[in-house]
């Protein structure tokens, strides 16, 4: 099913309303949808490199707005859905402790999920559920998603089709290593 969905999203790149399709995919991916907007961005930018920055900008705005929906789901619907499930599993108290720890590193969690292959929707919902300050969430989301989408757009704009394999296969690893090194550096500076 995921493969068919992936192929369908990829097929939207050639649609006359591809920018709108990208906006919808980026919006939904930040809260509920399993396919990342990069799948649509890459062929769109390769087809029209002169629109790379516009395409990245549409993905950025829609993704941050979708992240706000994920935040709202966590903030407004967690009590009705998540809390009874956790209580029935005997995890109600553990989640309160997790909530405190998440907000201590919330900026980094949102930044990390925003640029790495980690499902961004998990962090958007957790951010709302734990009560992360909305302004922190929005600013971090803008920073993380801008890094991700504009780096992809810049690489495709500059190098075109030859860089596609690198972006699809290796760029998520590069982003992940970057975030780990960033976290490690701050950890070392803080505790050494």
Automatic annotation (TrEMBL):
Membrane recorded as keyword: yes
Keyword set, alphabetical order: Membrane, Transmembrane, Transmembrane helix
Regions crossing the membrane: 20-40, 52-78, 134-159, 171-189
Source taxon at top rank: Bacteria
All residue ranges annotated as the VTT domain in the record: 38-155
PANTHER family xrefs: ALKALINE PHOSPHATASE LIKE PROTEIN, DEDA FAMILY PROTEIN
Protein name in the entry: Membrane protein YqaA, SNARE-associated domain
Species whose genome carries this gene: Sulfitobacter litoralis
């Amino acid at each position: 099913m995921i493969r068919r969905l992936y192929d369908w999203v990829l097929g939207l790149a050639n649609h006359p309303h591809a920018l709108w399709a990208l906006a919808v995919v980026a919006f939904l991916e930040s809260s509920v949808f399993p396919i990342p907007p990069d799948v649509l961005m890459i062929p769109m930018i390769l087809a029209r490199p002169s629109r790379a920055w516009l395409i990245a900008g549409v993905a950025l705005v829609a993704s941050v707005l979708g992240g706000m929906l994920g935040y709202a789901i966590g903030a407004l619907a967690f009590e009705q859905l998540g809390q009874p499930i956790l209580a029935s599993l005997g995890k109600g108290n553990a989640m309160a402790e997790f909530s405190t720890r998440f907000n201590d590193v919330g900026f980094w969690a949102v930044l990390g999920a925003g640029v790495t292959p980690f499902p961004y929707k998990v962090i958007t919902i957790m951010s709302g559920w734990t009560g992360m300050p909305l302004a922190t969430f929005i600013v971090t989301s803008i920073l993380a998603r801008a890094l991700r989408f504009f780096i992809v757009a810049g690489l495709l704009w500059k190098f075109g089709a030859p860089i596609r394999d690198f972006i699809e296969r290796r760029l998520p690893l590069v982003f992940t290593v970057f975030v780990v090194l960033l976290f490690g550096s701050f950890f070392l500076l803080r505790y050494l």
